[in-house]
């Protein structure tokens, strides 16, 4: 999810819980589809709600990335956060959830997921007028 903050565009990231994750990078809310779950967008909505307690607005697909080390494929969607969005710790899987400026997010996000920030940034920039 994203919103406009005092320093510009902000994104919602989460940090995994557990002592072994103390120094782990932050990331987007994510998880596996449940049996019978309609599509990946439904999974993204459910996981964001389960992990942060926040429901996203209309989503746009940001494609997927492949983790370099594990080969795991992660699909991402982005949507505007509700005006009153206040992410919380709605799941044992995370120990922190918050909106942060893009600049900070780029320093904290898992390096393989940084591509999602680039794609969101490109989506949010106004298109150049065509001649």
What's the quick description here?
The protein has 131 residues and is α+β, with helices and mostly antiparallel strands.
Strand order of the largest sheet: 1-2-5
Helix content: 10-25%
For the biggest sheet, the summary is: 3 strands, antiparallel
Radius of gyration: 15 Å
**Total DSSP helices:** 3
* SS class: alpha+beta
| SSE succession | EEHEEEHH
Instruction: Say how many strands there are.
Output: 5
Distance between the termini: 33 Å
Mean pLDDT: 91
**How would the global form be characterised?**
globular
Strand content is 25-35%
Quaternary: single chain
Q: In terms of per-residue confidence, which ranges show pLDDT below 50 for 5 or more consecutive residues?
A: none
Overall description:
- There is one protein chain.
- With 131 residues, the protein is an alpha+beta fold.
- 24% of the residues lie in helices and 26% in strands.
- It has helices spanning 40-52, 102-108, 114-124; strands at 2-5, 8-16, 60-66, 73-78, 94-101.
- It has a 3-stranded antiparallel β-sheet with strand order 1-2-5. It has a two-stranded antiparallel ribbon with strand order 3-4.
- Strand 3 (60-66) and strand 4 (73-78) form a beta hairpin.
- The model has no long low-confidence stretch (mean pLDDT 91).
């Amino acid at each position: 999810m994203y919103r406009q903050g005092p320093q510009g565009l902000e994104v919602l990231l989460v940090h995994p819980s557990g002592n072994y994750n103390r120094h782990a990078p932050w990331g987007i809310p994510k998880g596996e589809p449940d049996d019978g779950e309609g599509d990946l967008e439904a999974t993204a909505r459910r996981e964001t709600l389960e992990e942060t307690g926040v429901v996203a607005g209309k989503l746009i697909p940001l494609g997927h990335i492949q983790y370099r080390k594990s080969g795991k494929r992660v699909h991402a969607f982005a949507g505007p956060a509700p005006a009153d969005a206040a992410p919380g710790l709605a799941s044992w899987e995370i120990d922190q959830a918050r909106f942060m400026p893009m600049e900070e997010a780029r320093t904290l996000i898992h390096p393989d997921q940084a591509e999602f920030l680039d794609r969101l940034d490109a989506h949010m920039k106004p298109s150049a007028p065509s001649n």
